[in-house]
TrEMBL record:
Residues 13-74 form the ANTAR domain. Pfam families: ANTAR, SpoIIE. It comes from Pseudosporangium ferrugineum. Keywords: Coiled coil, Hydrolase. This is Serine phosphatase RsbU (Regulator of sigma subunit). It comes from the Bacteria.
């Protein structure tokens, strides 16, 4: 099977795993799921198909959309592991004298290894080791298939980190070496052989993959005999067999069983005492239960842990016996499989799931805290607000997505000189930090309004405050609109700091107002802000809002703005005498990703009666 064939087999296998309920909608959803599968497999070192099955199970058990679960996995895992060091190419182990180490990217190697794990035959990805002059000096095994084997018996992932010069030294002096150099240099695949290798004849196909060399070995001698087939099966399944003749006392082990226990065959099989010394004490109840089952003439199948050369291995053992007529065992035989990789993957997947659950609980707690904080510092009026010369309506639309409480805010109050101060703002980010910053800006605006009514000057003060907050909490920024309305002249003076422009509905047509100059808050310490003026007429409707109203994951900001303008036009046309209530009734759709604050105003005369007669806030 070629590399592309193995990749296609994986794609088909993953497609077969996607159920009707778990299939992500569209290319974007599929990309999110596939990225989560890759991260999950790479971080837990399990196979891609296993990672995908685990993702589907989490989605079903939590009754959450598969894409949502995948996004949570990406958010948790799309950071470097603490023991990985910086996310830059890392140097190879120190080479021999005169050989310079090269640097290589390794983030894609787990994916290559996961694909090779599923491929029969002998395949290996090797990364080049070059000398000081840049010439190819050696090749290092970076990913291998289970059947890959060296002449000294080292096989499968035991070859990882080994070098060609250590296990295939004759290759460096053969005519194959210049071919490998040429494939790495040009990217053109090549095949070499047949050549004599070990006890048979072999050919090698070489392909460049990334910065490495993908080699595939193929044997040309007649089909393997029974013993070779058994040996290949043992290596592929990472298992070995053993038998114990209780009559003669003879114990036999297969070659692979010696490899599993990392034992020199010259020492012979482990004695009972040596075997028990390797066992992890915590598994004693399992072993005792298995012994009792064996005494009842039952086949035993259990997985226990052993400590070999300072490392814990998980070994699955299946044991049965040939018995006499009384049931006494005459010959015990069994199969031992090294399932360490599988058990480790299961444990790592469980740990990822635990971390995700903990993250969700933490987000939920933060969401509740931020929501309570927001309700305390940003009370939303149940009904309309009457201010000098204005009718004001407010609506707050919380984000649909859990944990997305934002820093959107408004302010509307009458000043001592008879004018009205209006403001809408949006602090970058979500959660308690955004809500806290929002509170500081809103309360500071209210306090500063005692000293000046100039919107540009007020924004300048808020900008300096945000810059000070940024020193304590980096990346603190915000946008805002501040306006002052003079009811005697019906004149609105306003300034903005990187905020979406207000919408003015006049004569049945709605358009955004031209914005005066002004950068975001917290970006430029000595920023200056300009002012614009607007004379409002009876029948006008002014809509101030935060960007959650026009920005949406399924549409661009221009599309969102056009949709809001259309809604304003339709609301004013449908209810010209009570447009604010009609408008806010129509702007009920929450943004799944962001909070939205809406402040709608219209000028009134002394003849206008109580707003509750005209405004529905249902």
């Amino acid at each position: 099977m070629t590399w592309m064939g193995g990749r296609q087999a994986y794609v088909e296998a993953v497609d077969s795993l996607r159920t009707a309920t778990g299939r992500p909608a569209g290319d974007a959803g599929r990309a999110v799921v596939d990225r989560a599968v890759g991260l999950l497999a790479g971080r837990t070192r399990c196979r891609l198909a296993e990672a995908h099955r685990h993702l589907l199970r989490m989605s079903a058990e939590q009754r959450r959309d598969l894409v949502e679960v995948a996004a949570g996995v990406i958010g948790l895992l799309d950071v470097p592991e603490q023991d990985e060091g910086p996310p830059h190419p890392v140097p190879l182990p120190a080479p021999a004298v005169g050989v310079a180490a090269v640097r290589r990217p390794e983030s894609w190697l787990p994916v290559v290894q996961a694909v090779l794990d599923t491929m029969p035959g002998r395949h290996a990805l090797l990364t080049p080791v070059r000398d000081a002059a840049g010439r190819l000096a050696d090749l290092e095994f970076a990913a291998v298939s289970p059947e890959a084997i060296a002449g000294d018996g080292l096989h499968g992932q035991g070859l990882l980190g080994a070098r060609m010069s250590e296990h295939f030294p004759e290759t460096l002096a053969s005519d194959r070496w210049p071919i490998y150099e040429r494939v790495l240099a040009t990217g053109d695949p090549a095949e070499t052989g047949p050549f004599r290798h070990a006890a048979g004849r072999s050919s090698v196909r070489a392909h460049r993959l990334g910065a490495g060399l993908l080699l595939t070995w193929e044997h040309h001698d007649g089909g393997p005999d029974g013993s070779e087939r058994i040996a290949a099966t043992e290596r592929l399944g990472n298992l070995g067999w053993g038998e114990w003749d209780l009559v003669s006392g003879e114990v036999r082990w297969s070659e692979q069983l010696y490899r599993i226990y990392e034992r020199d065959p010259a020492l012979g099989p482990l004695s009972r005492e040596e075997s028990e010394a390797l066992a992890v004490p915590g598994d004693l109840p399992l072993r005792m239960a298995a012994a009792e089952a064996f005494e009842r003439a039952e086949q035993v199948d259990l997985t226990t842990r052993v400590r070999i050369n300072g490392r814990i291995k998980h070994l699955r053992t299946v044991v049965d016996a040939v018995r006499d007529t009384t049931g006494a065992p005459l010959r015990i035989y069994g199969i031992v499989q090294d399932v360490t990789a599988r058990e480790t993957s299961v444990q790592r997947l469980a740990e990822v799931e635990r971390q995700l659950a903990e993250q969700r609980r933490s987000l939920a707690a933060e969401h509740q805290l931020a929501a309570r904080l927001q309700q305390i510092i940003l009370p939303i009026p149940d009904g309309p607000m009457e201010l000098p010369g204005l009718k004001v309506a407010v609506r707050y639309l919380p984000a649909e997505q859990e944990g997305m409480v934002g820093g959107d805010w408004y302010h509307a109050e009458a000043l001592r000189d008879g004018s009205v101060l209006l403001a809408v703002g949006d602090v970058a980010g979500h959660g308690t930090q955004a809500a806290t910053t929002m509170a500081q800006l809103r309360h500071s605006l209210r306090a500063l309004a005692v000293t000046t009514g100039d919107p540009a000057v007020l924004l300048g003060h808020l900008n300096r405050l945000t810059c000070d907050l940024d020193r304590e909490t980096p990346e603190t920024t915000a946008t805002a609109i501040v306006a002052r309305y003079d009811p005697d002249r019906r004149r609105l003076t306003w300034a903005q700091a990187g905020h979406p422009p207000p919408l003015l509905s006049r004569g049945g047509r709605t358009a955004p107002l031209p914005r005066p100059a002004g950068p975001m808050l917290g970006v430029v310490e000595d920023a200056r802000y300009g002012c614009a003026t607007l004379d409002l007429a009876i029948g006008d409707v002014l809509l101030c809002y935060t960007d959650g109203l026009v920005e949406h994951r399924r549409r661009g900001p221009d599309d969102g703005l056009h949709a809001v303008i259309r809604t304003v036009d339709e609301a004013v046309a449908a209810s010209p005498r009570q447009p604010l209530g009609e408008l806010l009734d129509r702007l009920r759709q929450a943004n799944p990703d962001d909070d939205t604050c809406i402040l709608a105003v219209r000028p009134v005369t002394g003849e206008t009666r109580d707003l509750r007669h005209y405004l529905r806030m249902g």
